[in-house]
From TrEMBL:
It comes from the Bacteria. InterPro entries: GTPase_ArgK, P-loop_NTPase. Belongs to the SIMIBI class G3E GTPase family. ArgK/MeaB subfamily. The keyword Hydrolase applies. Transmembrane segments: none annotated. The gene is meaB. Pfam families: MeaB. GO terms for cellular component: cytoplasm. Its EC number is 3.6.5.-. It is an enzyme of class 3 (hydrolase). This is Methylmalonyl Co-A mutase-associated GTPase MeaB. The lineage of its organism: Bacteria, Deltaproteobacteria, Bradymonadales, Microvenatoraceae, Microvenator. PANTHER family: METHYLMALONIC ACIDURIA TYPE A PROTEIN, MITOCHONDRIAL, METHYLMALONYL-COA MUTASE. CDD domains: MMAA-like. One of its GO terms (molecular function) is GTP binding. It comes from Microvenator marinus.
């Protein structure tokens, strides 16, 4: 059956009424790079904005295999069945652009959650992504919020710069860790700890239990070396088992505690204000870069410059200068 095309009003009304099919299509619209789609998405977001802002925005990161999807399934089920909340999950699948099919894998991993009527799971291929976050994840988050979800979870794989990007769009940033073999701290990434609000050592079950507890203490000590992101909040280190649904409630209670602490100190609204400001800048940067890369004269020159720059025959500084001159030259003409 051919899908009926929707206009901006259809999208807005569908999203506002919580229609899942329209919501899914609205996110596709937001992710699209087509000029007419971008314009429609812009109009739609403008109209949806007044309905955004009230969801609990939680970012979840961790290395591949740490158990993010399993954790989100366990947490999602707790939120829906235990607390009566509705949950949207935005998951960027890092491997899909390479292997072309693991989105399916993720759906089966969150199978029980995906069957809940109060859940909406949106895996996005990481094409067009910044180190594992889709360029439009923030916009998708707002669309989910406008659709009335109480909680929006954003999953990102803990590689590259994706963690800072996601930390910049959520209220609370949760980092899942593993009790590794050998030196617990060797895999620690400074960047990640600087933006973490809560750390949880996952897979604290079976034979791994005491190692997880040791790791918890080691991370706790390591965190003392960092200046906390907010003076009022020192990131706690917890343990949990996503597989056995153990410690998940405690993680959620800590999310709420973090939220309340930030609200009480005024840091919450400050964080959101700063996020809006950095969103503004990323939109401007994004638009500038797209226009630059789409410029035919720039493309032509770039094609000639790439090889000599790679082999060192042309200095990158000079090449960049040339491309920018061409770009601004064509725009002035
Ligand atoms: N023992 C144990 N295994 C777990 C736990 N959580 C996840 N796993 C297992 O670890 C493997 C990876 O889990 P995923 O949930 O797919 O991990 P992920 O972080 O989403 O992985 P990517 O999507 O590839 O980045 C699976 O085989 C899970 O069953 C846990 O708490 N305990
Ligand atoms: Mg996963």
């Amino acid at each position: 059956m051919k899908r009926q095309s929707l206009n901006v009003q259809d999208y807005v009304r569908g999203v506002e009424s919580g229609d899942r099919a329209v919501l899914a299509r609205a996110i596709t619209l937001v992710e699209s790079n087509r000029a007419d789609h971008r314009e429609m998405a812009h109009d739609m977001l403008d109209q949806l904005m007044p309905r955004t802002g009230s969801a609990i925005r939680l970012g979840i990161t961790g290395v591949p295999g740490v158990g993010k999807s399993t954790f989100i399934e366990a947490l999602g089920l707790h939120l829906i069945n235990g607390l009566g909340l509705s949950v949207a999950v935005l998951a960027v699948d890092p491997s899909s652009s390479v292997r072309g099919g693991s989105i399916l894998g993720d759906k089966t991993r969150m199978q029980r959650l995906s069957q809940e009527t109060e859940a909406f799971i949106r895996p996005s291929p990481s094409q067009g992504s910044l180190g594992g976050v889709h360029r439009k994840t923030r916009e998708s988050l707002l669309v989910c919020e406008a659709a009335g979800f109480d909680v929006v979870l954003v999953e990102t794989v803990g590689v590259g710069q994706s963690e800072t990007t996601v930390a910049n769009m959520v209220d609370t940033f949760l980092v899942l860790m593993l009790a590794g073999a050998g030196d617990e701290l060797q895999g620690i990434k400074k960047g990640i700890l600087e933006v973490a609000d809560i750390l949880a050592i996952n897979k604290a079950d079976g034979e791994n239990l005491s190692a997880a507890d040791r790791a918890r203490r080691d991370y706790k000590n390591a965190l003392h070396l960092f200046t906390p992101r907010d003076a009022a909040w020192h990131p706690p280190v917890l343990t949990c088992s996503a597989l056995e649904s153990n410690g998940i409630e405690k993680v959620w209670d800590t999310v709420i505690e973090h939220r309340e602490t930030l609200r009480a100190s005024g840091a919450f609204s400050l964080r959101r204000a700063e996020q809006n400001q950095s969103w503004l800048w990323s939109l401007v940067e994004d638009e500038l870069l797209q226009t630059f890369k789409a410029n035919p004269d720039v493309q032509e020159e770039l094609a000639m410059l790439v090889d000599p720059v790679r082999t060192g025959q042309i200095n990158p500084t000079g090449a960049a200068d040339r491309l920018l001159k061409i770009f601004f030259g064509t725009r002035d003409a």
